[in-house]
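Recall that a protein's primary structure is simply its ordered list of amino acids. Everything else, from secondary elements to tertiary packing, is in principle encoded there. The following example makes that idea concrete.
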Amino acid sequence: MINIAIDGPAGAGKSTAARKAAEKLGFIYVDTGALYRTVGVAALRRSIATDDAQKVAAMLPEIKAELKFKDGVQYVFLNDEDVSKEIRLPEASMAASNVSAIPAVRAFLFDLQKNIAKNNNVIMDGRDIGTVILPDAQLKIFLTASAEVRAKRRYDELCQKGTPVEYDALLEEIKHRDYNDSHRAVSPLKAAPDAVLVDSSDMTLDEVVDKITELAKKLGDGE
């Protein structure tokens, strides 16, 4: 099986680029951030503070998070309910950042992610895929962009969906999440030593996808 790991900060475009690259390569795309968002949503629904490690950990036996694939498209389920749309709300983003710092949550999702990669050709994206989840991935990419560019992309995306939001608030949220993700004690956000750095600040989505597929095809060429 061929495994491609893509890591990087929030809003770098990992999910969209990875999904499109997977389509071109005929791989399964695995958005691990969706799983952490699902745990975050489960906590929010229970009115549990998402940074309360003890209460979040106590909740885990009550939930089942699943990724299901239909025609190459990933759907996310929480206790058999499709929450694919709910996990994309802004509040789910910060909830994901908080719960992902909790060791019990990372352990809870670890085997699920490993097993998907073991049985499929996958492009998996997240914060610690190349460093923790798939350290033996044949290709590791660290996809990043400036905080300002990432905030603008997110702003445009939410405006297009009709969700009222302020750019400055998004920028602060992204900077706050970057700090949390890179400074947490467990599996902090960082590039694997052998990762290829791709800065998408001045790249179009198609250019990022082309770069990923180009690097992936070199695997097949034995380069």
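The mean pLDDT is 91. The longest strand covers residues 65-70.
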